[in-house]
Design goal:
ABC transporter transmembrane domain-containing protein, elongated, 4-stranded antiparallel beta sheet, 640 residues, ABC1_TM_sf, ATP-binding, alpha/beta, 6-stranded mixed beta sheet, ABC transporter transmembrane region fold, binds adenosine-5'-triphosphate, transmembrane helix
């Protein structure tokens, strides 16, 4: 969303030797994104602490930063020389009416302008490169950190808000760490050179005009707070608009099915109105500030001209001196303004830093084990023996444990069916196996080694997860399958697709395996996507498989097409199937019935059935449901 304020995206080096209008200082940079509701608005990091946290990202580029600062210095120097030469030209060539006196100062002025242009170009383009590199690095770091977050992190942060943090807040921090530094250096050199030159020309006049400088500071102070407030409101609305659009597009089928288009449009309009109000308010405030500064500048120039006229009338100053002096003052105020706004830039960036640190400091739920195990040679493929011992787990911020004292084991190649009422903790147990979470107490072991002692990459190569909603990458069908085992050949991909009963429908697509699919694609049905996910899992060839409701949400016929490939996938692997559909339980080596986070019953299907407990009741309910759908229940028929 465009910001209403003119943006100073790139650090600029002042270089024009003399222009019809003095360069203006940049307006305040965009304020950072507002905190998401409920996250609090108080800054937790000081500007210095925020700077220290992000400054290390400039490592490797600091030599270039020094070069940019050097360019800024040379540009200010060239500007100073140009103004002095302009004064000389006025006095020698113009006032005296001598063409001969024109060439010398004109050539020197041109040389200064060319030098200014060259260093300005070099400085500005390098600064732009450094700024974008910083943004790129920071964004990559935040993105990589976000990708390590546990599932509950994404439930607590709206996706739109995370997108805003990865874009707007990252840029706000860049304004402090790179652009801010370059602008500060450029402004300091500008103030120094133009100020010294003005003092050198007429120290008394210079001091008189310097007295007016605090007016800029007062104006900046008066407006900065309000500007920041409306800018923040704009960012809040910005984030909300992104979230509304993203949520509506993500749930477009639901929106249409429940005729929620109007409601969604209303939601968007509400946020867009808030954004518009803030945007217009910001534009008004910004314009008022700019115009006030213009008036102050005019006041300063008039004061100089007034004093100059008095000095010329008393023969204490030449016209050339006065014009040079006025030019210096014109050039001097923008860097003064720029320095005044630096505080604003930094405090705005600090709020962005706050939001980003909120994400960066969120600890990943799991980390690789410390020590040499990760650096050493990759451990061999696991056999697939699983031991879950007395595991207890509570989701962060929730009062009751989702799992309490859960224990069971599975030998390589065994099939364990995990069932139980809704909310019993089945999916939570599944999430512990690829280590999305670590248990608070107890241990999960693979071939006798605690999962926390295995390198994460190795563990996830050995434990394949197939969830109810298949993962779809925005890529070709081939890549969607091959990501199960990077480097797989086309033949291996096709063989996996055949085993998953996907080859025929993939081959029938207009571009076959090269057909591009995307999340929420309508090109493939739910069952077809699930078969692509099965092909991926077959290619991965992990010894442990976790299937979380793999056929839920599919109609009976589609589920039937999925069951056969699933069986091929499960063959020879330790498989944990989380399901409410108990037909598979008859084939299981072990059935685990969870209730309220505890193992209520465990054993074989027939033993549990004769026990007459929770499992028997669940089976009876399931059988009743099957009878009701018996004529069309293809899965039942296939399995029977
Ligand atoms: N991210 C989360 N944060 C907090 N609590 C959660 C989270 N995910 C699940 N829970 C809670 O943990 C408990 C177990 O949930 P889980 O999803 O494991 O149950 P389930 O047996 O898989 O249910 P279902 O069969 O409906 O999928 C529930 O009380 C649930 O509300």
């Amino acid at each position: 969303m465009a910001n209403a304020y003119p943006r100073d995206d790139q650090p600029t080096v002042q270089l024009r030797a003399l222009s019809s209008r003095p360069p203006r200082a940049g307006t305040p940079p965009p304020a950072p994104r507002e905190e998401a509701p409920g996250e609090g608005t108080a800054s937790r990091v000081s500007p210095a602490a925020a700077f220290r946290r992000f400054w290390p990202l400039t490592r490797g580029d600091r030599g270039l930063l020094v070069l940019v600062c050097g360019c800024a210095m040379l540009a200010a120097l060239a500007g100073t020389a140009g103004i002095l030469l302009f004064g000389r030209l006025t006095d020698t060539a113009l006032a005296a009416g001598s063409v001969g006196a024109f060439w010398g100062p004109a050539a020197a002025w041109l040389a200064a302008a060319v030098l200014g242009a060259v260093v300005g170009y070099a400085g500005n383009t390098t600064a732009a490169w450094l700024a974008e590199r910083f943004v790129m690095r920071l964004r990559e770091r935040v993105f990589s950190h976000v990708l390590k977050q546990p599932p509950h992190f994404f439930q607590r942060h709206r996706h739109g808000d995370l997108v805003e943090r990865l874009t707007g807040d990252v840029e706000a921090i860049e304004h402090m760490a790179v652009t801010g530094v370059v602008q500060a250096v450029a402004a300091v050199f500008g103030v120094l050179f133009y100020g010294i030159a003005a003092l050198w020309l007429r120290w008394d006049l210079a001091l008189a005009t310097f007295l007016l400088a605090p007016l800029f500071w007062v104006a900046a102070r008066r407006f900065s707070g309000r500007l920041r407030a409306v800018s923040r409101q704009e960012r809040v609305a910005d984030g909300a608009i992104t979230s509304v659009v993203e949520e509506a597009l993500g749930n477009v089928a639901l929106t249409q099915a429940y005729n929620r288009q109007r409601a969604e449009e209303k939601r968007l309009r509400r946020e867009a109105r808030a954004w518009m109000r803030a945007s217009v308010g910001g534009a008004r405030m910004n314009e008022a500030y700019e115009q006030l500064v213009e008036v102050i500048e005019t006041l300063c120039v008039l004061a100089v001209i007034g004093l100059g006229a008095w000095e010329i009338s008393a023969d204490r100053m030449s016209l050339g001196q006065l014009l040079s002096f006025a030019a210096f003052i014109g050039y001097l105020y923008p860097p003064v303004r720029s320095l005044g706004q630096l505080g604003l830039t930094v405090s705005a960036a600090t709020a962005g830093a706050d939001r980003l640190l909120d994400v960066l400091d969120a600890p990943p739920a799991v980390t690789d084990p410390a020590g040499p195990s990760c650096a050493g040679p990759a451990p061999r493929r696991a056999h697939g023996r699983l031991d879950v011992q007395n595991v207890t787990f509570t989701y962060p911020g929730t009062p009751t444990p989702a799992l309490s004292g859960v224990s069971f084991g599975a030998r390589p190649g065994e099939l364990v069916v995990i069932t139980g009422p809704s909310g019993a903790g089945k999916s939570t147990l599944a999430a512990l196996l690829p280590r999305f979470y670590d248990p608070d107490a107890g241990a999960v072991r693979l071939d006798g080694t605690p999962l926390s002692a295995l390198p994460l990459a190795h563990l996830r190569e050995n434990v394949a997860l197939l969830s109810q909603r298949p993962l779809v990458l925005h890529d070709t069908v081939r890549e969607n399958i091959a990501c199960g085992r990077p480097g797989a050949t086309d033949e291996e991909v096709a063989a996996a697709a055949r085993a998953a009963d996907a080859h025929d429908f993939v081959s029938a697509l207009p571009e076959g395996y090269d057909t591009v699919i995307a999340p929420h694609t309508t090109r493939l049905s739910g069952g077809q996507l699930q078969r692509i996910a099965i092909a991926r899992a077959i290619l991965r060839d992990a010894p442990v498989l976790v299937l979380d409701e793999p056929t839920t949400g599919l109609d009976a016929l589609t589920a039937h097409r999925v069951v056969a490939p699933l069986r091929r996938l499960m063959a020879g692997r330790t498989t944990l199937v989380i399901t409410h559909d108990l037909l598979l339980a008859r084939d299981a080596d072990q059935v685990l019935v969870l209730d309220k986070g505890r193992v209520a019953e465990a054993g074989t299907h027939s033993r549990l059935l004769t026990g007459g407990g929770l499992y028997a009741r669940l089976w009876a309910l399931d059988a009743e449901g099957r009878r009701a759908t018996a004529p069309g229940d293809a899965v039942s028929r296939v399995r029977a």
